Amino acid sequence: MSIFPEQFLWGGATAANQIEGAYLEDGKGLSVADVFPGGPHRLALINAPQFDWAINRGKYDYPNQRGIDFYHYYATDIALLAEMGFKCYRFSIAWSRIFPNGDDATPNEAGLAFYDRVIDECLKYGIQPVVTMSHYEMPLHLVTVYGGWKNRQLIDFFENYARTILTRYADRVRYWMTFNEINAALHFPAMSQGLPKRPGASGMRAIYQAWHNQFVAAARATALGHALREDLQIGCMILYATTYAYDANPVNQLMALQEDQAFNYFCSDVQVRGAYPSYTAAMMARGGVAFETLAITAEDLATLRANPADYIGFSYYMSRTLSNQWIEMASGNLASGVHNPFLQDSDWGWPIDPTGLRIALNALNDRYQKPVFIVENGLGAVDHPTPDHVVADDYRISYLKAHIHALASALQDGVQAIGYTPWGCIDLVSASTGQMSKRYGFIYVALDDLGKGSGRRDRKASFEWYKRVIASNGEVL
Ligand code: BG6
Q1: 153 lines ligand 1 (CB under 6 A)
Q2: 204-207 long-range CB contacts below 8 Å, 24 or more apart?
Q3: pTM tops 0.85, yes or no
Q4: Residue-wise pLDDT tens digits, 338-358
Q5: From the CA of 240, how far away is ligand 1's center (Å)?
Q6: Quick one: CATH architecture of 9-471?
Q7: Ligand 1 mean position to 206 CA, how many Å?
Q8: Whose CA is nearest to atom 8 of ligand 1?
């Protein structure tokens, strides 16, 4: 008997801006991701206060405009996912394919028809689509003309978008998520809020206001979804990095607690509990922001209360370790800490910590008493295909195996988990660097960082391994 429930959703995850390409095809408008330059300095560039959201081809390359051309290869790509036995496939809908400017009066039918085809292709193989409404790809026009999510008008635009896609696909899609890694805006507001990173209290105020507007927008989308179909599941989605204090120094323990509140829990506390948590005012005050000065109406608070998220979707790649002493820094997924002497790092310096996943699952499920869904996990690594296209990615298998073991232990701990969708199940453009060479997939895509290559797809060793994992419902690892 497997530890995993019979209906457990094994699958994989991607995002439109990182795979589709065809960035202006069939009426699609520009999204923020289309103007993010590629390269190791991407995050520093988009976080610079002078980042101007303009395309400068003389200076930069724009890998998200190309993706892996899933827009044209979706049928053969989904066939490969089906060959692995996927029970579900998490992908996102590009808002700018449906409403090219975000504020358009009518949706773009060609964009809607594309996702009809993707969904139907999944269903053909019995794969449940799991759809993210907004994954780092808001229409650029909403940034350049409206100033991003700190502008309240975006709530109505998003509601309109959510209504359009829910109405169109709710008969075929049961699992949804509103904003990908909504909490990551704390450090990188450009990606999901369309805001430049500004130092000091005014920068933090904009982020908190933008979050509030997103919370209300997500709650309205949840209301719409439930009205359309009672059993629809609309989750929130957070980036969770299990947080440790470096040592037993109470100062470091308090630091870890406060960082947990500020980064890991604040957004999901609001979205799952339907109310701002007790620590809100104190937390905001530490950043120089007075909670009572945010534009929040009584109606907003009622909307949040009435429409909590159905489940907690989260990404987990690594843990973080915090200290008030200067210790060698570690790298990380849109957040970092100091080097943890008990952990090894990935090629990109992210601490590898499967036990941290068991802790995360227990912490989230127990905190909210709602199901959890690991919607991203994986190892970004450089692959070396042989001339005859063999990729022996044992390092990836070891990483995933250890994390699935941790997930199985969490299930035995009593955690209620819906599914597991490793990130970048097919190689795609990295969110933080725009590189193709940072690969997560079971399927190798022959493209380099500048988009050169045949684009051919090859099964890696991890492909056969994951196929067996799914076939045995997690028994054979
Ligand atoms: C998450 C994002 O932060 O991590 C994905 O939701 C992203 O979009 C993934 O690709 C891995 O990060 P990266 O920077 O290695 O692509």
Answers
A1: no
A2: 204/284, 204/287, 204/288, 204/289, 205/289, 205/293, 205/294, 206/150
A3: yes
A4: 999 999 999 898 999 999 999
A5: 12
A6: Alpha-Beta Barrel (3.20)
A7: 23
A8: 431
